[in-house]
Structures are given as structure tokens and as C-alpha cells.
Amino acid sequence: MKLCYVDETGTDGKSPAVVMVGIIADAARIHRTRSEFRAIYERLEGLPDGTIRELKSTELYRGKRRWDGVDGQLRHQAIGDFCDWLCERKHDIALAALDYTRFEGSPLHDQGLDRWGAAALHVALQVQRAHQGKKKNKGSTFLVFDENKQKTDALAQLLYEPPAWSDTYYDRSAKNEALDQIIDTAFYAQSHHVGLVQVADLFAFLFKRYSELLDYGHDEDFQGERDKVSGWVKTLSSRLLPAAHRWPKKPKNDPARWYVDLAPASLRAIG
């Protein structure tokens, strides 16, 4: 059984793109993952201003609130530690991203999906496509999202009865049930209780910031920011599900083409 911990950033309407990350972990290895996450967290709790209840990626990155007064080099080291740790644990990453403006009037929007739902379905479709060829893996992945009961209930219905057009994304065969690699419901958890949801939030922020700098012309917040963020993204890219499952270079079906067309160019170009 696998667990996919998911969080997103950019749905507030202030960002040029919505980015969602799912961290995929084997249930058999999750205890060690939690222990190691806790060890990294305990080092962070030794920083000024007391106990840190939750990473809060934007605050960590920009030195706000709990992170106010913490030297940028220390904060960046913490971000790098999480990137390196994820790769050492060999957890996979599902990445979804939608240009905020282009989504309006897109085929996915016309299918009745909002931005969050379209991104969440893309994560599920990637996991389905990546895992369906593996033996003894039927119906083995739980999707766990940051607490958002209204959204998660809608997604649970979407997973239980996925739209027919999504079948072609993963070449569903006539003998297989729809999304048979996904447990046909969705779960939610308070992010400060689940470490990997917090890490998914951090990674979603890094991919979004990378796109803001490369695709949307945002100015650097500090000298060398572009190179710094690019380095973190390069590290994480080694654990992304293959591009063929995410944004194939030559889409062979409409749903894949829809997602490719909405993806920011810099993220789409990641191998």
C-alpha cells in the first residue's frame, strides 16, 4: 500500500499559477520517514522564538512570523535539508501545475472542474498511470490532503465516479475499473499533524516560486534567488514521476494535452 500526501499553493488568486505536489511513500517505510522528519523538525525547534508547530512554507522562505529574525542562511539550509532528505528516502513526487488565467475557458474548466479539483485529479491520474503496470499493486494508494473538507468530499466523489474522458489519460483497458490504483475516496488531515503534508506544501511553494521567476518575470527577493531556487528544484526533479506520466512531450489524448497546455513552461520543461 502507498500513501500520497498532497498540498497546494497559489489558489488564492494572487499567484500566476496553481501548483500541487503529492509525495508518494510506501506504507511499510512510513514509520522511519516520520522518525526522520521529526529529527529534522527538532533541529528547527532549536531556532529562536520557541517551538515551531508547522513549517508554513511562505513564512519559512520569507522569514515571517515564527521565522522572523532567523538568519536567511539557516532558513535556506532547512529547506535544502528537506529536499535532500526526500531524495534520500526515495519517495516519489507527483507535480501538477495550472496557469491561473489560462484555466478560465480551458477544456478542464468546461468539464466543470475548479482549479483545485483539476490539479488534484491530475495528481491522481499520474499516480494511476505510474503504478498500473506494477504487479500486486491494485487499489493500493490513499490520497491524503491538507484539511479542506469541502474540497476533499468533492474529490472523493470524483475518484469514486471519475469522468469518462479521464480514461484515455492512462489508457484504461476494458477489463480494468476506472482509477483502479487509487483507493476510491480521499482523506484529509490537519497539516500540523502530518509532516509529509507540510513538506508537500514546501515543495509546491518551491516549484511555484521557480515558475514565477522563470515564466512570469517576478523580481528576485534576494540576490541569487533564481540560482538558489533552481538548485532546490533540480534536486527534487530527480524524484518526480516520469514526464510521460505528467506532461508528455507528445500528448496522445485530449486530457494529457489539456494539462500540458496549462502547465507553466519552466515546469513543463523539467525532465
| C-alpha end-to-end distance | 27 Å
| Unreliable stretches | none
The H-and-E topology, N to C, reads as EEHHHEHHHEHEHHHHH
- Please give the radius of gyration in angstroms: 18 Å
Q: Major sheet, described briefly?
A: 5 strands, mixed
Shape: globular
Number of helices: 12
* Strand arrangement in the largest pleated sheet: 3-2-1-4-5
Structure notes:
The chain is of the alpha/beta class and 271 residues long. The chain is 47% helix and 13% strand. The protein has 12 helices and 5 strands. It has helices spanning 30-44, 57-62, 72-89, 100-103, 107-110, 115-131, 149-160, 195-215, 225-237, 243-246, 254-262, 265-268, and strands at residues 2-9, 17-26, 92-99, 141-146, 187-189. A 5-stranded mixed β-sheet has the order 3-2-1-4-5, with helices on both faces. α7 (149-160) links the parallel β4 and β5. α6 (115-131) packs across α7 and α8 (195-215) crosses α9. The longest helix is centred in the C-terminal third of the chain and has 21 residues, at 195-215. It is globular. It starts with a strand and ends with a helix.
Task: Using brief descriptors, characterize the structure shown.
single chain, 271 residues, 5-stranded mixed beta sheet, 47% helix, globular
Write the layout of secondary structure elements.
Blueprint: E1 2-9, E2 17-26, H1 30-44, H2 57-62, H3 72-89, E3 92-99, H4 100-103, H5 107-110, H6 115-131, E4 141-146, H7 149-160, E5 187-189, H8 195-215, H9 225-237, H10 243-246, H11 254-262, H12 265-268
Parallel strand pairs: 1-4, 4-5
Antiparallel strand pairs: 1-2, 2-3
Helix pairs in contact: 1-3, 6-7, 8-9
